Amino acid sequence: MTRGGTKAGTRGTKAHEDESRRSRPHVRPTTRTTSQADFPGCTTEDCQKILRRIQSSVDKNLDPCSNFHSFVCDADQTGAYNAEDIKRRVLLQIRHQLDSEDVPANGQTAFQKSAAFYQKCKSFDKTGSATAIRGFLTEHGMDITAGMSFDPLAIVVRFMFVEGISLVFDVIVTNIYPQDSASLFLSLHEDFTSVPSGNEVRTVLSDIIQIEQNIVTNIVDARRNIKMLLDGIPPTANESFIVFPLSKLGEMTENDTDLSARWTKALLNSTDSRLPGDRRAIMFQRYVVLFHRLFKLNSEISENDLRLSFVWRTAQYLYGAALFRGSKPDEDRCFLDVRQKFPNTASSKFFFSVVNASRVDAVRTMFRAIIDELQDSFRNSPWMDDATRQGARMKVTELKKTIGYRPEFGTEKDVNAFYRDLPSMTRSYCKNYIDLLKFNTKMRWDRVLAGLPDPESQRPYELHSVSVAYSEKSNEIQVPPGVILEPTFFFGAPPGVNYGILGRLLMHALMHGFDETGRRYNAVGKMANWFSNASVAKYKRQTDCYEKLYRDGETKGLVTFPAPYADNRRTYLADTIGSMSVTRAYQKDPGGSTLGNVKDLTKDQLFYVSWCLLWCGTSYGDPSRCNLPLMNSQHFSDTFFCDAGSNMNPSPKCVFW
Prior knowledge:
Collagenase (Catalytic Domain), 4-stranded mixed β-sheet, 3-stranded mixed β-sheet, 25 helices, disordered N terminus
């Protein structure tokens, strides 16, 4: 677009500019309607859809230099591209697929296993689930209606590392010693010393077994005895912890070699010798003492009390899983359960059909361009010293990226291979739940022992998520398939559209690694002072400049977020400090635009309109997310011919990288 014979980025005399601005609007009005012929270079449905959206959204009668959010959004407040609404529609389709799948009894695919799991949950087979729980208790020597041999130490180990139920201790995988393999932190399970009421015990167990009052009383007494035992162990100063080889836990107090031998035997038997005994373990000293008093030969808690306590914990856990509460199944909870237990499977059928390799590759290409530009920005930063610059560039170099699908779940074949050893989900919901819990526990320890991240410590990766996520503690960015669909990505659309929408979101997430919290973590996600003192001082001057910019926008009604600036400081900084890197990456993209009329917008103007589309209507509803970064962009002001000192072209600008 040109205005008054003046090209974007050039200036005539002040008088000429003033006259030209009065005589010509920033964007020429048009009364033509849009049809597919208007966009001859637009060959995909995505492209047509987003350009029609822009055509209906931009209000050409408003001044973009006064309030750009109004210019982009005021003509269409329908919220048609509300990201959360689209997420809900996607979830409805996934739910319908799970509901309608005709699942065979045998030879189930991974998706069919997830569908069967969901359908069995909805069918609410209370009798079958009660039978499954009784069978599980009997299998592990915990049928309290019959005399059975019972080894409490072996059960604790097996449940931790095989069955996936914490009876006494939770196992947390930690990299507290990054130079070695991951350590195992054994912490007391939060419910282990809780004492239930008799009514609570009766309510749970009466649905599972025929229970006598004396059993109810004995369970309550057993839990009370365990709590009294722990209460009698005084906390150590500063809650000190002990580090030891896993196999030596029994020797950590009183040098109990017998307990150590029984513990090691239980580890070997339960884990098929997969879990190495020399793996570093960590426990608070108080809990080491508790372990010894519970499981030494002359235990301070009787074997029967331990069995009753474990029966209660197991039944309580599976009772909740089997959805016994209420008179009918909670279908929403069933849907949540299947997405949590089959995170890469329940929605795979839908996403494999709509987010193909071409879409994922297009986003990867765009992301690489943004990363390259960010590296150049760090390389040329005028205020970073060499050490800080090197740390920043290393953080980007070492960034872990998941774009689209996780590598092990990239295709339907991959997903089926992963779940090959999971039994078919043909039995009661609770039996399916037990089988799946055991399967997921094995997969967890297979990954940990292979040196891969513990799934339980990772951010859940939901395919349907519409958010780009960054973790400073792992220096990882996640771009799930749900982001590679509208309203955040439009396959085949002009580069400016996708850089303006998804490119902006990618950079926002990345910049959380360099905001006031993220900059305290280094390239491998460890807290470290890789910013020099001199660079920290200059960094603060830069962020103070942004706060002044926000205050200026606040007085002009351009930023209207309901919470105070301090509460959203990280959000606004992440929006703004990387914006020029996205702009430069877009400008270098070799893809051209052969589009017809789109509200007479130039390709650069289309980029900035796209930058703000997500903040229209009810999608996110914060004009600040649109206006604030652009108030800081001279390129934006030049693109729309905004006078110096106008609302969208304040001075001075805050140049970050």
